[in-house]
Amino acid sequence: MVEVITKTQNTERTFEILQGSLWCSKPTAKVVDSGHGAGVDQRIFAGQILDADTNLTYMNARYYEGNRGQFLSQDPSFLAIGDPVKFKALTGQDMIDQLSDPQQLNSYSYARNNPLRYNDPTGNINWDTLWHPSQYPSVLGQAGIWYGASLGFNVTGHPLTGALMQHSLTVGPRDVNINQQNQKSWGNAITQIQNSSDFTNALNGYLSTDGKNGSINQTYDALQGSVVFNSGDLKTGVHGTYSTAVQGTQNQDGTWNLNVAITDRYDYTYQNYNGGEGGKTLTGANNAANFSQNQGVISNYGVTFSISMPNYNPNKKK
Question: Measured between alpha carbons, how far is 33 from 52 in angstroms, rounded to an integer?
Fold first, then answer.
């Protein structure tokens, strides 16, 4: 790192050259003589300090050039892309949240490229405006944002979420039945479900309660404990479900031959996911999708996950 301190009439600045980027310390704001007997505060754009010597605005983490509408250096969080742990430590958010939003992929952009609507007083990634397709007045603009988001989901470990989103953007999407044969097109959803502790815990509970006589044929709705997914791709793609139907018989060795059908409807209702994995971002994304759904951009459709489970052992530990 090379540090250079410069002084001019109105401002003292410290420049640090680090990893090829120019990082600057905060200049001191002063009231300067306007020439008309009144002082002019240097705080102009977004209430931040204008450096009159360079005509740049200091935004706390970086300098902003108004003529270009961009920062002069990258957002610090971009240096951590590829390291999810470090990225979350810097931003408090999961890396997928940034990579899923096309408007956040330019590390020099200001306020999601929409300074007329939003501001970015910290100079760091602006999470408060992460999911705002409502800024796009046209249906086409909103569809573009969600299609870009679906591609982001596909490459960041959430393929089911991306596939379901893409299907919702088609005209009059058909209901979907996902099973072992076609699951590859849907992010290997059946395998994900079978490996999910949320699913196995719910299933074992059903068998313990309603399978005491060696058979089970029950349907559980949301009030009766239909499975809820609390992490990963299943959370962002499905989360809560409408019903879980379980049918099967027990073998002499204690294992079960089961057929399970989990049904859901792909739709968005206004919600607040307090706490948990990605709570703030999940809330923002969900409610932005609710807006686009009301605009007719995102369409609703039924989803069924059909799972055949021969010789299922509820006592087997994963």
Answer: 12
